[in-house]
Amino acid sequence: MFYNVYISLFEWDGIGTSKLYIGLENYFNLVRDADFLEALQNTGTFTVVYVVSVIFIGFMTAYLLHYRIMGKTFMKTMIFLPHVFPVSVVALLFYGFYDMNIGLLNEILRGIGLDSWAIAWLGQSETSLYAVIVAFIFSQLGFTFMVYYTSLLSINEEVMEAAHLDGAGFWRMSAGIVFPILKGVTVSLTITGIIATLKIFDIVWLMTQGGPGSSSELASTYVFKQALQNYQQGYASAISVVLLLIALIVTAVNLSIYVRGTRR
Description:
By secondary structure, the chain is mainly alpha-helical. It has 13 helices and 2 strands; from the N terminus they run H-E-E-H-H-H-H-H-H-H-H-H-H-H-H. The protein has helices at residues 2-7, 25-32, 34-65, 72-80, 87-97, 104-111, 128-152, 157-165, 170-181, 183-199, 202-207, 219-229, 233-263, and strands at residues 10-11, 20-21.
């Protein structure tokens, strides 16, 4: 990590032995780089949509399956199973799922009379990023679900029963009692989710390679292109340092909010 910071101060192709010291020039160039700023904006969008969605869906599915319902074991297995799939498998599944001509999603839309909605989901700049987000949620939901589900097992059942006797319904119980009790779990999942989106590369590269254009370009894929395609190792190292600082700041803010909340 420290060597990466050192390399960010040089202009270097990553292959030769000679390096040209340029100080902070790489960092100044980042501010003027429209492609990097767009990739950073896409990363922010990816992070917000993914973290909010996976936490909400993970918590609600865990809370629903916490009760004794028919087929609970099977449903838990099906929710967690995609998390153990290789990323290449998930990317291939969704690449076919989004296919313009024979993809299941478009076949369903055509089958219910929504032919105008059947589009090339990965080939449209307006939808490509969100299509990849859905695939990533599918692959990571099992982890969030399992963390919430195991945490629910540690809640005192007497608290739940007392709230139920007081007339608290499903939504009141989940939003007013259960979710606040699991605040520490949520903070941890938020931090890990943000860090995961900052370093995500494989599923984006396999599905879109940052395209079309730069509509699904993330900071991580931009680093890869700069380092291994454009041979700008020093510039790529500067981007990596910025991502590291963002991850540290976000983690510190989340932990600070959590600590303040527990002290109250």
